[in-house]
């Protein structure tokens, strides 16, 4: 594939700006990926909040994604979804994105973890978003963490571990009476079923597996939903043991680096919209990062990824305030993922 070399022209048209905070390192505001892409050989990229909002792609995202591939860059899609990696092209293809990529998900790494520990992780009490009453039949779904695994969904008295795969129901079996609804995804409120789930696990000193550490996610109509990472954090605060899979865990990033046969981290950049997961993970791994301001932090930064040019503009003062608060230093910042 041929490289697309228009970085210099675009740079001249839209010069980068630098923040000059009193105590915080500099982040560089760029208008498009092409300004800096030639500096890297490998790109790691998030999906939710960067490529799409769960339903439709962001403006310019499909074009930018496909141009990245045409430019000959090697890249790995790095997602905190609880689904396995084979679900990524199934999700992105119909939106118009090329499916010519490798992918690593929290669900994939969690699946491998369970596969290596079959005996000690054969019985699970589960929180999930699957509302079709077929929790225990997931072993036949290739996208599921449980695919090919003989993991039984059981009550707390028989469980060897807890898993928070989703946030809409607590499951102790596939029977209707053992499937208890929650509204945590939409409200962030911990109901009685969730309290029993967490307290029961704590009393029995059960580890909780969290394949998606995200606390919030931005969805269609800029609506935020509460994710499993918030529940895992609560369990941890209660004194429970949590095993996280996905960003910001350094191990998750290193799986991507191995897939891409990386020998020089200075030639790697990660693109993501969460300071706490994407930018933190990139920092811990020792690779550069591009922060997408119009994703999960859009409200804090007053950036509208679907708005006018002014609404889309990154406001340096708001950006610096947020960076000072989080003590994180993205190498670059752009309003949305665009060429």
TrEMBL record:
Top-level division of the source organism's lineage: Eukaryota
Organism: Phytophthora lilii
NCBIfam families linked: HAD-SF-IIA-hyp4
PANTHER family, per the entry: 4-NITROPHENYLPHOSPHATASE-RELATED, OS08G0542600 PROTEIN
GO CC, alphabetical: chloroplast
Gene3D superfamilies: HAD superfamily/HAD-like (3.40.50.1000)
GO function terms (MF aspect): phosphatase activity
Protein's recorded name: Unnamed protein product
